[in-house]
Amino acid sequence: PFVASIVPQAPEDPLFGLMAAYKADTSPQKVDLGIGAYRGDDAKPWVLPVVKKADDLIRSDPELNHEYAPIAGLAPLTSASQKLMLGGDSPAIKENRVTSLQTVSGTGAVHLGALFLSKFYRTVYPSTAIYVSNPTWANHAQIITNVHLPVATYPYWSPKTRGLDIDGMLSALESAPARSVILLHVCAHNPTGVDPTQEQWKQIAEVMKRKAHFPFFDCAYQGFASGDLARDAWAVRYFVDLGFELVIAQSFAKNFGLYGQRAGAFHYVSAPAAEAQDTTKRVASQLAILQRSEISNPPIYGARIVAKVLNDPGLFAEWEENLREMSGRIISMRNALRGKLEELGTPGTWNHVTDQIGMFSFTGLNEKQVGLLRSEAHIYMTKNGRISMAGLNTKNVEYVARAIDKVVR
Ligand code: PMP
């Protein structure tokens, strides 16, 4: 028989199905709260002014060509993204125990990390699973299972408090087999918008250190969450300071608005040790082989823009300004939505809308309410009640609040 005859129909990707339904809706009042991409107050995609400027500078270079990037990617990108993630004065960088590769955005970085662990970590610790938060970004589980690693979960979201289930999380980390891989969102957790506090991160690190767990950080929103690059990277830097061996997947999709350009990086950080420099070199050599067999060379266009901005102090300062504009607009929409709901006396508490951070809010709306918002008010969000805060603006926030009020009553 043909191979195709045994291939079953796959379910539609829920997010892309939602996008298609939104597109097909002809109501002028429709609101897209599904897609995880920034929109300005005019509901349109926003090209960051600093990205436009860097792009113009790059294009005006008469020497510009389209040769392959090195296998590990553009060196100005990888070296600057290390500093961005770990801090310019990171001892790990100074001690040459960090190795970085440019990847196909954050997805490619998560994949490369999972592939690396599947190939090497698994051979020493065969029963290793990767633990992901419940819930987590919808793509994590399939990226991990694609490389034949088992996925397990740790509790994260408490429906009762609409915040972090820190006790559940800590006890799951405690009872996981020693040397498990724990995937952690660095900031602006997707889909809940709930991040541990610094005190809670310290508790998480304490259990993980004691159990010799392996931290796998996923950083898709640095600077986009609080508007402050260092604050958003705090957890990673704290774990590095504690001497963990760890990996980081870094995306420039959201914080540069370069979604389709696929710019990102993967970092491996060795624990401090006399032989750390040598082990890091060996890791780099193996990562290069994995990269070669997967993509050969990463895409250059978005990476050039990011590298230009990260390596130019003037552009960097402008970028920070752009980040504050995006995160500030989102925070003001959180305040506006909560304010309207409280003004309307909508049943329930709404402080979680402003307590949560980043692109998303886990509203606590149930599947039925989500369905009603779509059929009655043309408001689109994922079934789990997650809304993209960037879809709200000064023109539609009251409309959305009134519609939520109606379905909650
Ligand atoms: N991890 C998380 C948690 C995310 O939310 C995203 C973006 N949705 C990514 C990784 C990667 O996205 P990209 O491949 O577009 O960088």
From TrEMBL:
| Coiled-coil regions, chain positions | none
Give the GO biological process terms.
aspartate biosynthetic process
Return the EC number.
2.6.1.1
The chain positions of domain Aminotransferase class I/classII large read 29-404
- Any one Gene Ontology molecular-function term assigned to this protein's record: pyridoxal phosphate binding
Keywords, A to Z? Aminotransferase, Pyridoxal phosphate, Transferase
Keyword match Nucleotide-binding: no
Report what the protein is called. Aspartate aminotransferase
UniProt cross-references to Pfam families, sorted A to Z: Aminotran_1_2
**Which InterPro entries does the UniProt entry name for this protein?**
Aminotransferase_I/II_large, Asp_trans, NHTrfase_class1_PyrdxlP-BS, PyrdxlP-dep_Trfase, PyrdxlP-dep_Trfase_major, PyrdxlP-dep_Trfase_small
- Fill in the misc note: In eukaryotes there are cytoplasmic, mitochondrial and chloroplastic isozymes.
Which cellular components does GO assign to this protein? Answer: cytosol
- The answer to whether UniProt assigns keyword Transmembrane to this entry is no
Which cofactor names does the annotation list? Answer: pyridoxal 5'-phosphate
Oligomer status and interactors = Homodimer.
Name the chemical reaction catalysed here.
L-aspartate + 2-oxoglutarate = oxaloacetate + L-glutamate
Query: Could you say which protein family the record assigns here?
Result: Belongs to the class-I pyridoxal-phosphate-dependent aminotransferase family.
Q: Which PANTHER family match?
A: ASPARTATE AMINOTRANSFERASE, GLUTAMATE OXALOACETATE TRANSAMINASE 1, ISOFORM B
